[in-house]
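Sequence and structure are no longer studied apart. As an example, we show below a sequence and the tokens encoding its fold:
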Amino acid sequence: MILNSLHYVPAKGTPRLAASPLPLAERLKEHGYRTALLTTGWVARTYPPLLQGYDQVITPEALPQARQWSKRNSPIVTSQAIEVIEQLAEGPFFVTAFYHDPHYPYVRHPEVPDFGGSELGRYDSDVAYADRYAGMLLSHLRHRSSLWDRTMVIVTSDHGEEFGERGGKHHAHTCYVESTHVPLVVRIPGERARRIDAPVALIDIAATVVEIVGARRDGGLQGHSLLVPARRDGDGESDRPIFCTIVGQFEQERFVRRSVRVGDYALMHDVRSGMVELYDTRADPQERRDLASAPAQGARIDELRGLLSLSRGTLGDWH
């Protein structure tokens, strides 16, 4: 489920995800790739634009063989992903496999180390469980050396998780670091391994894939290719603004919250209330000490609010 950028349209007073002008799956399909998405039925029903460009959309929990796994989907996602890849392996393919297990309600899994019975411990167990089965998928690819040598692999998450750091739980409510700091691992055949220390964004994934495979870049593609900082030994754009927008997904959740991170500072903005918060992310990486009331930060807040205003088009016509 990799979009070029986020687009929202009004729907009964709450912004909703709209179709991307030309999502990554559509670009790759035009470029001769066969495409498949493995996701949950809830995602497929709730966010139809995410399905745009996929030849196949598979909801593993609807398959008869999934019943034995109850509500845990990692084993069946890996099994189905391997089956789909084997069907498509003769030519170029793009497969997105969504591992849903690291979500509430969290579960302790006997197949992985025990992290304890707390909510955080059970969440860690869910993460380890999904990681175990994602690893099996990678092992399958590695054992097919002719396939592995021409396959790019991207592992990431669409959000983090909150565990009461500011009184909240779960996700999809804020743009604080615990919700936005996610893993991103990109394996590109022929590229040596290295770490990129500069800030990057999930919209960079589409730009990176498009550059590597030579698909079209026009039609609303945002993001920066990760090949640029990678080939500079991780030296990227440290002052590049990184944006976040989170909106209420249901009628009872009428909120729009945004953030922008530039250099050592992060600005949070609640669109409805107008409230802003400012954090020095170098001195305060967990974003706990709000500096917005400090007179010396006024110019910085104005500058960052200006960046948010310039990017407001991502909210469509919603106010």
In short: The chain has two domains: 8-230, 242-315. The chain is about 30% helix and 20% strand. The two ends are 27 Å apart (CA to CA). Residues 8-230 form a domain with the Alkaline Phosphatase, subunit A fold (CATH 3.40.720.10).
